C-alpha cells in the first residue's frame, strides 16, 4: 500500500515562504509522476505543479514563478518551495502520485489521473 505523508504547512504573512514535503513509502518512486494539488476554502481542488522521473516540471499559471517543485530520490521525498505567498494561496495542499514515468501538463487539471494521495497539509496566508 502506498503512503504519502505531507508536512511543512503553516500560517505565514503575505510575502512569506513555506516549503512543503511529501514522503513516499512502499512505492516505486523512480517511475512515478508526482504532483501537488491544493483546495482553497469553498473551492474545487486544483493542480499546482507536476514533476516526473525525467525531472520535467509543469506549473499552474497562478504560480507565476513563485513556486518550485523538486524531488530527492535518495529520500523518496517530493518538495514544494513556495515564495512570495499571497492570501489566495491559502488552502489544503495535497501530494499525489501515479505510476507513470512522465507527467503531462494536462494532468494539472485532471486530479483523477492520480491514484495515490496524501492526507494534506494546511497552508494559511494572512494579509
Shape: globular
Strand content: over 45%
If you compute it from the alpha carbons, what radius of gyration comes out, rounded to the nearest whole angstrom? 13 Å
Biggest sheet details: 7 strands, mixed
SS field, number of helical segments: 0
Mean pLDDT: 94
Helix and strand composition category: mainly beta
Helix content: under 10%
Low-pLDDT ranges: none
What order do the SSEs take from the amino end to the carboxyl end, as H and E? Answer: EEEEEEEEEEE
> What's the total number of strands?
11
Q: Ends: how far apart?
A: 40 Å
Feature tags:
mainly beta; 4-stranded antiparallel beta sheet; 127 residues; 7-stranded mixed beta sheet
Task: Describe the 3D structure.
- This protein has 127 residues and is an all-beta fold.
- The protein has no helices and eleven strands.
- The strands form two sheets. Strands 2, 4, 5, 6, 9, 10 and 11 form a seven-stranded mixed β-sheet that branches.
- Strand 4 (33-39) and strand 5 (46-51) form a beta hairpin.
What topology emerges from the helices and strands here?
Blueprint: E1 3-7, E2 10-13, E3 18-25, E4 33-39, E5 46-51, E6 57-59, E7 67-72, E8 77-82, E9 91-98, E10 116-117, E11 121-126
Parallel strand pairs: 2-11
Antiparallel strand pairs: 1-3, 3-8, 4-5, 4-9, 5-6, 7-8, 9-10, 9-11
Task: Tell me briefly what this model is.
The protein is mostly beta strands.
